[in-house]
């Protein structure tokens, strides 16, 4: 009986200890988001399909301090069919470098704060087959530098869940628009923007799953 109580006490003690994020730990994260919306009627069918994928790698170069690299890919397709057909496809590729420092809160729950720098390239092609057919394409380059923070739950020594709650970013983007109509009339436009954006506790809620080794 005493032996069983001792084993139980040890198990409870282990469960109450925060899993130390020690120097040399590797962290792999991944995410998949896929959705399809379809609306149809007598003479039309509208369909929107969104897919996004993320893959990340992090390394604890010292206790509770991690550097990381994240890669992202997105593909969005839309079709609108009635008497005429309109289609749209957008592809995006990106990546960012990040630094995070973790602060223990309760048991296996940690808060973190850090910074990141990222780049995203996207291309959007739209085709309008109406009375005046037209093909429009957009290409965009976006650069961002920012700070962010959130909460991480180290479920076990091998798995963790993380959410981003707060962020502030400086964003610079350059977009080029090209249009070609049925008469091969070509127009080209360029847009640039620079802004500071911030998102609050609920607005920027997102999750990551980590595999630690």
What brief labels describe this structure?
213 residues, mainly beta, Porin, 8-stranded antiparallel barrel, elongated
The whole-number mean of residue pLDDT values reads: 76
Count of individual domains: 1
Number of E-state strands: 9
Question: What is Rg?
Answer: 24 Å
Q: Numbering strands along the chain, what is their spatial order in the largest sheet?
A: 1-2-3-4-5-6-7-9
Helix segment tally: 1
CATH architecture: Beta Barrel
* Large-scale geometry: elongated
Task: State the order of secondary-structure elements, H for helix, E for strand.
Answer: HEEEEEEEEE
Name of the CATH first level: Mainly Beta
Biggest β-sheet description: 8 strands, antiparallel, barrel
Q: Would you tell me the structural class of the helices and strands?
A: mainly beta
The N- and C-terminal alpha carbons lie at a distance of 36 Å
| Beta-strand proportion | over 45%
Fold and architecture overview:
The chain is mainly beta and 213 residues long. The protein has a single domain, classed as Porin. Helices cover 7% and strands 74% of the residues. The protein is built from 1 helix and 9 strands. It has an 8-stranded antiparallel beta barrel with strand order 1-2-3-4-5-6-7-9. It is elongated. This is Outer membrane protein beta-barrel domain-containing protein.
């Amino acid at each position: 009986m005493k032996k069983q109580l001792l084993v139980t006490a040890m198990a409870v003690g282990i469960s109450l200890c925060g899993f130390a994020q020690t120097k040399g730990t590797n962290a792999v994260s991944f995410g998949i988001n896929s959705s399809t919306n379809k609306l149809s009627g007598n003479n039309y069918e509208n369909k929107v399909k969104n897919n996004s994928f993320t893959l990340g790698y992090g390394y604890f170069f010292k206790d509770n301090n991690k550097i990381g690299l994240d890669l992202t890919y997105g593909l969005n397709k839309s079709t609108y069919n009635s008497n005429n057909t309109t289609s749209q496809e957008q592809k995006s590729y990106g990546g960012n470098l990040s630094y995070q420092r973790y602060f223990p809160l309760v048991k296996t729950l940690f808060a973190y704060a850090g910074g990141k720098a990222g780049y995203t390239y996207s291309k959007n092609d739209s085709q309008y087959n109406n009375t005046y057919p037209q093909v429009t394409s957009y290409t965009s380059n976006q650069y961002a530098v920012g700070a962010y923070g959130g909460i991480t739950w180290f479920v076990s020594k091998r798995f963790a869940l993380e959410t981003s709650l707060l962020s502030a970013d400086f964003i610079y983007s350059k977009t080029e628009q090209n249009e070609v109509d049925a008469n091969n009339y070509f127009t080209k436009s360029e847009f640039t923007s620079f802004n500071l954006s911030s998102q609050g506790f609920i607005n920027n809620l997102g999750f990551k799953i980590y595999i630690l080794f």
